[in-house]
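Exercise 7.
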Amino acid sequence: MIKLDKKDRKILYQLDLDCRQSSNQIGRKVGLPRSVVNYRIARLNEQGITRNYYTLIDPMALGFIPIRIHIKFQYATTNIIKEIIDYFVQIKHTTLVGLAEGFFNLSVVMDVQDIHDFYDTWQDAKKRYGNYFQNYTLSFFVSEMRFNQSYLLQDEAKKEMRETFAFIGKRNVAEIDTIDIEILKAISSNAIMSLVELSKKMDMSSVAIRYRLKKLVEKGVILGYKIDIDASKIGYHKVKVYVNLRDFSNRNQIIQFIKYNHNIINIDTNTGESDIEFDFVVEDGNKIRKIMSDLIDRFPNSIKNYDMITHIQLFKYVYFPEFP
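Solution. The predicted structure, written as tokens, is:
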């Protein structure tokens, strides 16, 4: 485990807030000169704590339907599991493939514009590997509240930090053209690409690129510029909690209460499986049990039960869905 000091944690928080902000801007916020900020960021990159700088894009604003598959294995050897993972990774419209520990073993997300694309792929997967599926569930993504990673600031985290979040799940499809698509492709997995680099790649002026990025933000396509943090490197792990409700009328109150917990990074709504899903970054399992016990005590007649999984390994994570 790599131990971070307060300055490193503040830098990571600022990068997650907006990784396109300059070193000067970050330096003013964390109290360090630009050269030191650059040195620390380079060190975080070298240590593998920052895995990627990505653009947070709402796939639904582009007309995609995210569909999730959860699979519990049976009779599956290590080689068979690898074969199944490789199969899903190579499919062009899978955007996430990851192993987990809990009530399912494999999570797959596909972003499709035509439901038949999903159906054909899923039928093929079942023909090939269905004997190794003890059970599975399918669900449609509805929305997600994506919070800044204020757990990094520990005791210095403030309640008001939880008031701002990115909302993924736009109801209306934004009007974009092929140039917008190419810009999104370029910066989806390289959010820190400069305007100069981007203008050269697109053969456009920096002014035109800046204008298009601004319009993509206004249209709700681009929701922010983030970093992918390997939480395991700094002593944390990611846990997803699936909550089933007895009294659905209190769902909004539960969300409003839990969102002020600094360990939560996502609150998801999907069809099926559960009524609310929480993604936490925590030091250990005791923290999760304490959080959920407090939540149940706060809403004793509303929460029926919950289950959880621990993320083990990610094999594919695409930041921009592939257009047909």
